[in-house]
């Protein structure tokens, strides 16, 4: 049968490669014809609540009128122009907004294409900074285990080398320096004993690698794809001091945690310090178009500029795309123009109440909620394919990974819709 004779879904299954799938066994796949608000409308008319915010980015819901209007308006005047030697109002206006809401010390914004690329940019910044200040041998990285920072090559090297999704690439990737993930959880009492709080191990690794480690990179407070693990922010406060003492830059990957998801505008807000570099993506445009940015402080930016060759060696073709900048500005205006903190708090309280019964199920290891992140951790791996097979019946699209059944719902989720999501999670915990 020729490709022209295939149905849409048949063509998809035979020719299109989806993320993290076996092309010979693609699993249940739904054809989405339309999206609006909380809902995905399938080709058979079924409406599913998008409990994943389409991989954590669609915080204002699908096809938000303010964001789509901003994209339409921008499309009529300047869809794209190179950022080399040129600039435009959408990039400048977005930059002003970012400086209003991000940590005060971060003043230099580098726009890029996706979250993975923003991590690549941050790592390149760190290496080039160390080179510029006369320490060219400092080009390796330290990070914590169970972390995830993206699928591009350098970002993969700081994902967990043993349990992470990229362990099979060991030997091909750069070898980095790993410490145990912070052992004190966010709601536990902090221990001042460095042997108990993980900082003794961190200091030992950074001291041993002081002549070759450029930066320490980690997801602040929340490890996302690495297991939805929430740890104590005091770890970050003291890690900052150790990094400063040893001349190691500190990078926060806030791609998943940024823009209110954790209950703070940025997870950095849980601690008393600021990073040298922050990576932002996902919710930046409210999920309407791919975009990200890497923001650093004057010390790093001017350090790079003061070295050889005096310019930062990165420049994506679609850097500062005007459509994406317009979408991001509209999304951030939406976020800051509402009581987002109250909204996220309400979602959090409802999830804590409605997911609590999962603790009594025999195969459940833990139940965790932080901000608009709800997790049921099972004692065994959970099949995403089996969860998808139940989506029609539940009216909810959930995509577990590893041992975690989780949701990061859009901020527009109503109480009734959230109850439908939590009921679906409990069903999967009972049945899978």
Automatic annotation (TrEMBL):
Cofactor(s) this protein requires: pyridoxal 5'-phosphate
Annotated residues for binding of substrate: 55, 148, 282, 315, 399
Positions marked as site (Participates in the substrate recognition with KAPA and in a stacking interaction with the adenine ring of SAM): 20
Biochemical pathway: Cofactor biosynthesis; biotin biosynthesis; 7,8-diaminononanoate from 8-amino-7-oxononanoate (SAM route): step 1/1
Gene Ontology CC: cytoplasm
Enzyme class, first EC level, given as a word: transferase
Primary site of residence: cytoplasm
EC number in record: 2.6.1.62
UniProt binding sites for pyridoxal 5'-phosphate: 115-116, 253, 316-317
InterPro entries reported in the protein's UniProt record: Aminotrans_3, Aminotrans_3_PPA_site, BioA, PyrdxlP-dep_Trfase, PyrdxlP-dep_Trfase_major, PyrdxlP-dep_Trfase_small
Localization per Swiss-Prot or TrEMBL: Cytoplasm
Residues that bear N6-(pyridoxal phosphate)lysine: 282
Alphabetized Pfam families for the sequence: Aminotran_3
Gene Ontology BP annotations: biotin biosynthetic process
Entry-linked CDD domains: OAT_like
Keyword tags: Aminotransferase, Biotin biosynthesis, Cytoplasm, Pyridoxal phosphate, S-adenosyl-L-methionine, Transferase
GO terms of molecular function: adenosylmethionine-8-amino-7-oxononanoate transaminase activity; pyridoxal phosphate binding
Catalytic activity: (8S)-8-amino-7-oxononanoate + S-adenosyl-L-methionine = S-adenosyl-4-methylsulfanyl-2-oxobutanoate + (7R,8S)-7,8-diammoniononanoate
Subunit record text: Homodimer.
Function: Catalyzes the transfer of the alpha-amino group from S-adenosyl-L-methionine (SAM) to 7-keto-8-aminopelargonic acid (KAPA) to form 7,8-diaminopelargonic acid (DAPA). It is the only aminotransferase known to utilize SAM as an amino donor.
Similarity comment text for this entry: Belongs to the class-III pyridoxal-phosphate-dependent aminotransferase family. BioA subfamily.
Protein name: Adenosylmethionine-8-amino-7-oxononanoate aminotransferase
GN (gene name): bioA
């Amino acid at each position: 049968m020729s490709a022209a004779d295939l149905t849409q879904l048949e063509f998809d299954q035979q020719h299109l490669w989806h993320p993290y799938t076996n092309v010979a066994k693609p699993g249940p796949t739904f054809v989405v014809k339309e999206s609006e608000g909380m809902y995905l409308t399938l080709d058979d008319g079924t409406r599913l609540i998008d409990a994943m915010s389409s991989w954590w980015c669609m915080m204002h819901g699908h096809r938000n009128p303010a964001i789509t209007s901003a994209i339409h308006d921008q499309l009529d005047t300047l869809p794209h122009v190179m950022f080399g030697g040129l600039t435009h109002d959408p990039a400048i206006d977005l930059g002003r907004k970012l400086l209003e809401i991000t940590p005060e010390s971060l003043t230099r914004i580098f726009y890029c294409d996706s979250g993975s690329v923003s991590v690549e940019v941050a790592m390149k910044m760190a290496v080039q900074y160390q080179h510029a200040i006369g320490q060219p041998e400092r080009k390796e990285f330290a990070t914590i285990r169970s972390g995830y920072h993206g699928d591009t090559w350098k970002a993969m090297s700081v994902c967990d080398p043993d349990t992470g999704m990229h362990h099979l690439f060991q030997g091909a990737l750069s070898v980095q320096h790993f410490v145990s993930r912070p052992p004190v959880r966010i709601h536990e009492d902090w221990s001042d004993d460095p042997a108990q709080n993980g900082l003794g191990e961190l200091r030992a690794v950074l001291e041993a690698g002081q002549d070759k480690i450029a930066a320490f990179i980690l997801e602040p407070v929340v490890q996302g794809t690495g297991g939805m693990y929430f740890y104590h922010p005091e770890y970050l406060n003291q890690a900052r001091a150790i990094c400063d003492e040893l001349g190691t830059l500190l990078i926060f990957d806030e791609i998943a945690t940024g823009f209110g998801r954790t209950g703070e505008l940025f997870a950095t807000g849980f601690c008393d310090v600021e990073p040298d570099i922050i990576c932002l993506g996902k919710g930046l445009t409210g999920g309407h178009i791919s975009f990200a940015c890497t923001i650093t402080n004057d010390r790093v930016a001017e350090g790079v500029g003061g070295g050889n060759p005096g310019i930062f060696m990165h420049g994506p073709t679609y850097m500062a795309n005007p459509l994406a900048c317009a979408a991001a500005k509209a999304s951030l205006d939406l976020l800051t123009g509402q009581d987002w903190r109250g909204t996220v708090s309400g979602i959090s309280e409802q999830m804590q109440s409605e997911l609590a019964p999962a603790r009594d199920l025999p195969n459940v290891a833990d139940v965790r909620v932080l901000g608009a992140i709800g997790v049921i951790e099972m004692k065994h791996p959970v099949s995403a394919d089996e969860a998808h097979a139940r989506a029609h019946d539940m009216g909810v699209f959930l995509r577990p990974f590893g041992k975690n059944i989780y949701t990061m719902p859009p901020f527009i989720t109503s109480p009734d819709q959230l109850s439908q999501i939590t009921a679906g999670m409990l069903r999967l915990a009972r049945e899978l």
